[in-house]
Amino acid sequence: MVVGELLTPTPVSAQSPMTGDYMNDDWVVNLWQAEGTLHYQAMSRRNGGEMYLSGATQSGTQDRQIYTWRNGGHQYQVTWRPSDPDYIRLQVIDPNGREILNNLLSRIPFSP
User: Fold this and answer.
1) Confidence of residue 111 (pLDDT cuts 50, 70, 90)
2) Are the C-beta atoms of residues 67 and 77 closer than 8 Å to each other?
3) Are 37 and 20 a contacting pair, CB within 8 Å?
4) What percent of the chain has pLDDT over 90?
5) Nearest to 55 by CA among 40, 41, 43, 38
6) DSSP characters over the chain
7) Which domains are delineated in the chain?
8) Among residues 55, 74, 76, which one has the least CA distance to residue 66?
9) pLDDT at 110
10) 31-60 pLDDT, tens per residue?
11) Which positions ≥6 away from 30 have C-beta within 8 Å?
12) Fewest CB atoms within 10 A around its CB: which of 51, 57, 64, 109?
């Protein structure tokens, strides 16, 4: 693959080193693999609301990997950079293509 070449969106099937638990002041996000599927669970630290999604597709580049889940017209994206493995960027895009959330989360210490 040429550096900077975009990956074709494909289902995530290989174990990803970005799995684990991440958080900031607003969110706790857990990412894990089970039976070849990447799962996402987010909990609001403000109101306790939770969301679970599975079956992400992967896009981006090898240096900037983007995992996308879809739910009710919204896209939930986690961006991860292998060069900065202890951080993810969580973005939510509404059905009109407008970004409604953009947060940086750090890996919770001692999380696999």
Assistant:
1) low
2) yes
3) no
4) 79
5) 38
6) --TTPPEEEEE--S--TT-EEEE-SSEEEEEEEETTEEEEEEEETTT--EEEEE--EEEE-SSSEEEEEEETTEEEEEEE-TTSTTEEEEEEE-TTS-EEEEEEEEEPTT--
7) 7-107 (2.40.128)
8) 76
9) 74
10) 999 998 999 999 999 999 999 999 999 999
11) 20, 21, 22, 39, 40, 41, 42
12) 109
- With bands split at pLDDT 50, 70 and 90, how would you rate the model's confidence at 69? very high
Residue type, 59: S
Residue 29: pLDDT band with limits 50, 70, 90: very high
Is 89 within 8 Å of 103 (Cβ atoms)? yes
Residue type, 44: S
